[in-house]
Prior knowledge:
Elements lengths: L8 E6 L3 E8 L2 E10 L1 E2 L2 E2 L8 E2 L1 H20 L8 H14 L5 H10 L10 H6 L9 H13 L4 H21 L26 H12 L12 H20 L3 H6 L9 E4 L2 E3 L2 E3 L7 E4 L2 H11 L22 H14 L9 H12 L4 H8 L4 H23 L6
Parallel strand pairs: 3-6
Antiparallel strand pairs: 1-2, 2-3, 4-5, 7-10, 8-9
Amino acid sequence: MTAMKLPTYSLQLRGARFYDVYFRVNGRQVKRRVGRAWVKDGKPRRGRPQEGFLDVAAAHDRAREIVAEHVATVAEPRSVGPTFRNVAREYMTWLAKVRGAKPSTLADHGYALAEPNGTTNGSVMRALGDRPAAEVTAAEIEALLDTLAESGARARTINKRRALLLAVFNYGMRRCGLPGNPVRGTDTRREPQRPALETYTVAEVEQLAAALADGRHRGRGAAINDAERAEDCQDAELVRVAAYTGLRQGELRALRWRDVGTDVLTVSRALSAGVESGTKGGRVRHVPLVPQASAALERLHARGDFAAREELVFCNWRGRALDPSALVARFKRARDAAGLRALRFHDLRHTYGSLLAAAGVPVTDIQSAMGHADLQTTARYLHARQASEQVDRFARAFAGVED
């Protein structure tokens, strides 16, 4: 039997960390990841490679195996099933029509699975799009994730991309007859410990609201017109409601007057990517209205305009939904004008949870009010309270002790 003739290949060191092999088959260039390189400062190391690393000789051996495997795959006439591209497209359709995923989720996944073009890198489709989904290996997935890491992506971003690929292949196993899920053979990246929660005090929330209300964040000497003044007053009440109810930004922008009760807010919708849909957890929740939040809503309702039952509580001058980017930009300018710490808009929600925890509200009540699906998420506020109480106990232990 005549030995298979292999095409010429090129072994290259990628980023001083990995060996890649390049070769051409049927007029198309193919690139495959070979493995981790046993090098230092771009030069081969001496001695026996550590486990999981390849010296130059071992890299060439593995490269020839990869080339031979690919040539054999191309030469063998057989049904290979759907490509990864087709499975991914079916998954996205199912996610939208059957699962009813939020528009923002569909937009994020759509970006991750986009074709390479002038506006998107398209790394997933570039690496896997034309591959028969049943033949994609764990090594290919690992190589793709390594490429993301080399490009500077954070561990959290890489893990989210891995989770998406896991979901696509799980769908392919259920609906497209794929024999397995190669993503299961890869590892998640270790993410840095989440930073401690940073929140505003009630006094700082009021400083922020004042900076919005008086228009100082606009940073110009010209007089403020009536439309701008109305926007500033509404923004001031919006940050109060955000901090004193814990609603997410999308929930605030979807809130209507019919949702505002005497003592309770009914939260059932959110705006996501400009489309109104269910809340993040998909459940309706009822948030008790504290006096500060009630007062802010009463002042808004008293403005007269856009106060009908079906109208938005927070809206632009036409009564339409607020633009999220513009809202956050005004928040940041007011925050800086007030000389406050550079916290995010979302930290107003954390402020609410922390204030409740500091007051001793049971963690399950906080979870219910904030709409957390997982109690562990709510427990972060409890941990912050415990740390604060520990500081107080330590201080009392040393009260009266002199150096």
